[in-house]
Specification:
Pfam families: PTS_EIIA_2. This is PTS galactitol transporter subunit IIB. It comes from Enorma massiliensis. Residues 7-155 form the PTS EIIA type-2 domain. By secondary structure, the chain is α/β, with parallel strands linked by helices. It has one domain: 3-Layer(aba) Sandwich (Mannitol-specific EII, Chain A). 38% of the residues lie in helices and 24% in strands. The chain has 5 helices and 7 strands. It has helices at 23-34, 44-54, 116-131, 133-140, 145-156; strands at 9-18, 58-60, 65-67, 80-86, 90-93, 101-104, 106-111. A 5-stranded mixed beta sheet has the order 1-4-7-3-2, with helices on both faces. β2 and β3 form a beta hairpin. α1 runs antiparallel to α2. The longest helix has 16 residues, at 116-131. The radius of gyration is 14 Å and the shape is globular. The N and C termini lie close together (10 Å).
């Protein structure tokens, strides 16, 4: 069994040129995108902000800076993986051991209803993708939701 349910990548969950001054604003805008599709509960926004404050998710890889924010399952109606390529990098606090902010060029928001082990496996798979220079180039070159979904599914399979 693969670590990532590839069906969680969907065109409706890919956002380009997202504009946000900070991670809180990104989450507020993302909530407005996810709610109409029934992915999230009313508690999602407060839940993801609190989790990001407690467990920051910014990571600086050799070729790209990313954020992998996720939320606890009780804030979800159904699982999803959203991919956000902001217009300008958005500052996220660095993950454990990283001082300061990371200017995230791509954000992968995990809304997983699986247990903690499943979430860790997905995070590990994504980290492997972002360590691969060629994979990062392919992701950053995407300009359509369908292309991003196809690329992410292929890279995470």
């Amino acid at each position: 069994m693969r670590a990532v349910d590839l069906e969680l990548f969907k065109p409706e969950l890919v956002f380009f040129d997202f504009e946000a001054a900070n991670s809180d604003e990104l989450f507020e805008k993302l909530a407005n995108e996810l709610a109409p599709y029934g992915y999230i509960k009313d508690s999602w926004l407060a839940g993801i902000k609190k989790r990001e404050e407690t467990y920051p998710t910014g990571l600086a890889f050799e070729t790209v800076s990313v954020a992998l924010p996720h939320v606890d399952p009780e804030h979800l109606n159904k699982p999803y993986i959203a991919v956000i390529k902001p217009k300008e990098p958005i500052a996220f606090r660095g993950m454990a051991g990283i001082d300061g902010d990371v200017p995230a060029q791509i954000i992968v928001n995990l809304g997983l209803t699986a247990h903690e082990e499943g979430q860790v496996a997905v995070l590990q798979a994504l980290m492997g993708v972002f360590l691969d220079t060629d994979a990062v180039s392919r992701i950053m070159a995407q300009t359509t939701p369908e292309g991003m979904v196809e690329t992410m599914r292929e890279l995470c399979s």
